Structures are given as C-alpha cells and as structure tokens.
Amino acid sequence: MLFGFSFxxxxxxxxxxxGKREIEPSFRILATPDIIDTVKAAIVSSYPLLxxxxxxxxxxxxxxxxxxxxxxxxxxxxPFYTRIALGxxxxxxxxxxxxxxxxxxxxxxxHIKHLSSFGNIKRGDIVFxxxxxxxxxxxxxxxxxxxxFNLGAKLHxxxxxxxxxxxxxxTVSDAKTIAQRYQNLGADFEFIGNRGDTSILxxxxxxxxxFLGTKKPIIDTLSDWRAKENQFxxxxxxxxxxxxxxxxxxxxxxxxxxxxxxxxSTLNLSDSGLVTNNTIIDFNPGILTQLFNNKFKxxxxxxxxxxxxxxxxxxxxxxxxxxxxxxxxxxIPYVGIRGGLKQNSLRTFSSENPYLLSNLTIQNxxxxxxxxxxxxxxxxxxxxxxxxxxxxxxxxxALYISDTLFSSFNKFNVIYDTINITKLEASGSYQQNExxxxxxxxxxxxxxxxxxxxxxxxxxxQFILRGSYNLYDKFLVNLSGKIETGRKAKVYLAxxxxxxxNEQFAKPLGAIVDxxxxxxxxxxxxVSAFLQINNLASQQYYRWYNYPVQPIQVMAGVTAxx
Length: 562
Hints:
Elements: H1 2-6, E1 80-87, E2 91-99, E3 106-117, E4 121-123, E5 126-128, E6 133-145, E7 149-163, E8 179-193, E9 201-213, E10 227-242, E11 245-260, E12 266-268, E13 271-272, E14 274-291, E15 296-308, E16 312-324, E17 332-342, H2 346-352, E18 365-378, E19 383-402, E20 412-432, E21 436-449, E22 461-471, E23 475-485, E24 488-491, E25 499-501, E26 504-508, E27 512-522, E28 527-534, E29 542-544, E30 547-548, E31 553-561
Antiparallel strand pairs: 1-2, 1-31, 2-3, 3-6, 4-5, 6-7, 7-8, 8-9, 9-10, 10-11, 11-14, 12-13, 14-15, 15-16, 16-17, 17-18, 18-19, 19-20, 20-21, 21-22, 22-23, 23-27, 24-26, 25-26, 27-28, 28-31, 29-30
C-alpha cells in the first residue's frame, strides 16, 4: 500500500519570486570591564618621628672565674720497691718487691724478704746460749683475669733457721747441736669460672702441695733421721643462684704424709721411726636463702668428713647460720652452729711453736659442734663493732709441753686432750678515710680439760690493738700491740711460784705486753725513711717456757720505688 501511495502524489512545482534581505553593520564596544570590589582600602596614616633621649645607668657585676673540667692524671706506677734496714744487736733487714704495672688481663710479681739476728739473749743475770736466727721468705705469683674465668698461681719458699736456746745459764760448746732449720716449699693454683650470676652454674677449683723438711743430723750416717712432710689438697666449689636461693656444694681432698726416720727401725731405746699417712675427704652441701631485700639470711648445710688413717672414721657436722639486718645494717644479730675436722701437721704446729721435736705423733682435731651467737653493726660510716660468744667441745686439742725424753727441756712435744672452750669476744673499728685507722679486739677464754690440769700455754685474756695515722702524706705512724695473760706451762717439780693441781705442776708464764711503734717520713713519693721500735716496753716476757724474747729493738732504714 505504501508503494502505491507514493506514486499517487502530484509532480514537483517550481515558483519564481524576488525579495530584499539586509544585514545590519557590526560595531565594537570600546569600554573595558571593571572589577567591582566591595572592600575599600583603608587610608594609611603617617605620624612624625619624635626623638627623646633616656638617661642610661651602667652597673658592673662580677662573674665566676672560668673553669675547665679536667681528669686527674693517672699516677705513675713503679714496678720495684725495696726496704733496707739495720736493727739493734746486728739485725739486718732486706726486702724486695716486684709487681706488674697496669693491665686488665695479667698481674704478676715477686716478694723476697730476709731478716736475721746475730745477737744473743740475756734476761737479767740469766744468759741464754746462741739466740741467733735467720729467716728468708720468697713468693712468686701470677694471675690472669678474663671475662669468663680467672686463673692464679703462687709459688712460695721458706728457709727458717734458729737455735733451741731455752737453756738458761748453760754453756753450749757447739751451736750446731742446738740448731734447727725448716725448709718449706709449696705451690697453690686457683681457677674460677665466671659464667654468669643468676640461673647458671659457677665453679671454683683450688689445688696445691707443700713440702716441709727439718735439718739433717750432724752425723751423716743418720741423715734419714729427720722429719719430712708432704701435703696435697684439692678443693672444688660449685654454686647456683636461683631467685633468693644459692645452692652450693663443696668437695675436697686433703692428704698429709709425715715421716721421721726409717719406718719400722729404731735409732735407740727411745727413738724409733714414725710414719703417718692421713687422707680426708670432705663433702659439704648447703643452701643460702636471702629474704626481705637480703636483710634476712639463713645458711643451712652439713659437712661430712671421711678420715682415712689406719682406721677409717666418718664424721658429720652441722653448718647452720641465721642473721638479720636491722636499721640499715646498724644492728645485725646472728646465731649458728658449726663443726669440722682440722688436719694437724708438722707445718701447722711449727708455725705456732717452732721449738718442737722432729719426731711427733700427729692426730687430727675433731670439733663435733660449736655454738656461737652475737651481734655486729655499724654505728656510722666510720665506726663498726662486733660482739660474740661461742662454746665448743674439742677432741684431740693439741697442747705444747716441755720434752723430758729427747732433750734438756729446751724442746717441746705435742700432747692431745679433750677440752671444753668458752670464748667471749668484743671488737671495734674506727676509720677516717685513709688518714686514721684504729682496731681493738678483746677476748676471754675459759678452758676445762679432761686429763690435763690446765690448757698449757693458752691465754685466758687477750687484747690486740692496731692503729695508723697519716699526716699530710708525709709522716706515717703505725702502732700495734698485744697483751696476753693467764698462760701456764707444765713443769715436773714443785718450787717457787709453782701451782699444783690434780697432782700436776704448773708454772705461770706471766703477762705478754708487746707494743710496737713505727714512724715513716716520705721525702717524696719514691723515697722514704723509717724507724721501727719493737717491744716498746722492753719486757722480756716468756713466749714459751724458758724462751724469753729480746728486749727493746730499734731498727732504722730507707725505702725506695723505682
């Protein structure tokens, strides 16, 4: 249908027409646009500059003097130090020190000392034969300090010669017959493992040996008839810190081999060979607890000792101590109980009393338990004190008595007894920097022996004082003293001033009053001179029965560092 509609329209029509169309001419606007701003600019006012002068006052003030903070120069260290002196009765003294200088790792040195006397001893009208002696001591030492361990070693040698001069109003044709000489050689080693402080196991190991020998007899064929002693020890300690507890364990071994003469041989009817071999094994565990900011401390442990001789014995000792700090360490009460097995030897005996026989019977000292209590503290930063008391029952306590079998009362033998000992002690200390120091100790002893009438040669009262004063680092004054009373020696005959008790005779030895004074003048930091006065009271007290000491002794000398 669409197709048909399109063909039905008419044809195109063309129309011609005329018209006029005009376009208005264009023009340009000459005015430019302006920005209309509603903010109006303020008028700037101008003022005239007026000049006025105000009077100025100047006040001068002081300022502190300029200072420069400096570090004190490290003092120079001199590795060598020596002392040379000469005393009354021809008593020469020579002493030499060597020390390594500053080092964080290595420390080593040496010390050599010689003291001798060529004078004899006379007490009133009583003359004693040949009181001459010589004493030489040598010490070598070294130490290595590392962050994880410390290693140290010492080597010592002692040559001590003297005479048994305890023969009043006696004439000795040959001084060699009363001469004695101790040769002592030993070494000590120490290793400490520094692995840490808390929650880690630390340990310490110490070991060493010592040889002691006496003088050979005059007759060469009897050279074996002298005393020889070999000692060895090994101690290990381990401890572990955990919170407020410290767990520790000590293991030790002590060996002593003493020999006099030839074993199973007889020199004469009263003198035969002696051999003593003794080994002690120690086991000591314990726990140290610290509470209330370390004010309360309790140490609980035990000590087990196995004494191996011809017969083996086992001892168990308590080890307990409790103490509490009050008022910031001003007052610290403490109480405890302890015990132990002491290994006696010729070395320990001769260090107390050198005038001994060479043939001794050696037994160990057994202390089952000792109860002690006291209090200590600091009254100020300069003053401290300690007061305590103890009570113990000691088995095989060694006592020295005059020998009647092998000598003419001028040598001492060792006997053993069970003794109850009660001790009271008080001490005080005062220190004002390095300028003034003073210490005083007082002790009272009470003895109850089982078999002997008295505890021979042991004091009842004892006082010890030490003091030093430094005046401008130019004058140094040292004072030391010892007072002992109540000592008694065992004798065998009645007589004047002899005490008889339980059918035994005792000779009071009198008081010991020994005061020593030393004064040193420092010319400079390297050279000084000194004066030493010993036995200031010039009291010739008897240190042992028939053994008076020398009267007042004066020694002068010089010291030098280089």
